[in-house]
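Complex record, two chains
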Amino acid sequence: MNASTARHLKTLSLIVVLTLLPFVIQLALGNAWLRTLDTAMLYIMLALGLNIVIGYAGLLDLGYIAFYAVGAYTYALLNSPQLLPLLTGTGYEGLLHTPIWIVLPLAAMLAAVFGVLLGAPTLKLRGDYLAIVTLGFGEIIRLLLRNLTRPLNITNGPIGINQIAPVEIAGHSMSKPIQLGGLQFTSLYQYYYLFLVLVLLVILVSSRLQHSRLGRAWIAIREDEVAAQSMGINTRNVKLLAFAMGASFGGISGAMFASYQGFVSPESFILMESVMILAMVVLGGMGHIPGVILGAILICLTPEVLRDVVNPLQDQLLGERIVAPDDLRMLVFAIALILVMLLRPEGLWPSRRRTSELHEEDEAKPSVKTKVASHE
Amino acid sequence: MSEVLLEIRGINKRFGGLRALSDVSLSIKRGEIYGLIGPNGAGKTTLFNVLTGLYQPDEGEFSFNGRDLFAAKPHVVVASGIARTFQNIRLFHNMTALENVMVGRHVRSHSGIVGAVLRSASNRYEEQAIKQRAQELLAYVGIAHRAQDVAKHLSYGDQRRLEIARALATDSILLALDEPAAGMNSTETEALKQLMQTIRASGVTILLIEHDVKLMMGLCDRIAVLEYGKKIAEGIPEVVKADPKVIEAYLGVGDP
């Protein structure tokens, strides 16, 4: 079997696995887990977006969830009755049923604009300082959504926006099940396949960017900004592009979140969410797409696993419930992150480049000579 | 040979109260190796940073190859044809040697997000050309066999060479080398000297800062001497060497 056939076989089996995954999960674990799977897909998109900003360009962004919020509210406002009182009689009521193929690019673009808005004033900041400013930015967006009720009620404040219409493709609303040859595809299945397509798209874009002229420029900036400048890289533009690209993935994910959930409120976009996405990227392996996906899945699954394990375990061992699974969640994350930082600072599934960065001491030995493929 | 490539006039650069450069004027001719020497702290690296756009001068004129580069941004300077190396090597340490040089091609290539994502024919062609040119340059400076090694694993001398290859990748007309022989032994220095002569023979003008006065005297066509941010002498090596002001700057004033 030659290399190309082997690769095709690998791709084919991956497609089969990804197609059958929701069936397996539902049969084995039930609907709640299928829902978790869908949510995990949204987080994979988010983590991959943040990965561009942090993993490639090395810009620590603690307010990333703001772009998720921008995407979510874009979809929510254009597919719910929230703006109806404002638009009634203007002839623009039709805007409230904007189709997905317009909303999705719009959400991505708006998020990218916000990415540039965040990026522009922070261009000269690095490390901790950048982190603080981005953290503030995330909070500003959340507070804006919370308070944008006067003079016009746009976001409906802390109550959030209800009755968001599900995605409609070719006249079919994704809230309705599809019957196909004896199989019933519920809304959860349909969203799974939609998200799968988007995740694959995001992976494709990420990986192609990584191995492009622009990707090299991002990595060069992360490695040494002054040297990158002196090589003729317009660091301002290239950094802004990283912010914009990363944000646009967040925007797409956010729009999907709004439609999937049918409801958005500012409480979904708290700082803790930004921290979680950062944890996904760091835990999995910064700058490495498979690693980041693994990180997102692990962090999404942990609370569900705890829920399924902790209570029965307590019942059996102690006869009563002492801790709630949700309280344990933070403890587990904290321990996991501390362990990773101590034992595997490059993440669980890192790129070879990252490993070489963080294991300086091993390389002082002259016998160690790492060969790295020209394209990691 | 005598056409002026780079000319600065009355360049001033202050850091707060400190006058790092005062009224520095000099001109570099096309095709020459121009040396810049001076005691520590004389402002050589500051002048270098001004010429490569990392520092913005406060006053003066700066023209290069018919373009006004006064207070231009580094990427504009590089695009105009000036490339540099650093006194303390500044490679992209965790990228391979080949990737380092490929970054140098950034300024001579164009593909953006759309091209990269769609992987259009022109984008693939450009990427291939970048890679090929980078490989040629690695061979040119004599480290083709280290192409796939991570930059930080290269020997000191090879890192210096890689920095030069990366700078040449920008298609520079003027190559500015900040103490390229620092920390090298005499064999490495000799090899570096030959490399610089090869580069010059290929039509690239070289601006050189170096402490190794012997190397400078043997290599440079003309030399300028800086002291306390001022140019105190300029000319062919023999004349500069005999200039009393230069001797004073290096050795101090003798008691009568």
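Note: Chain A is about 70% helix and 5% strand.
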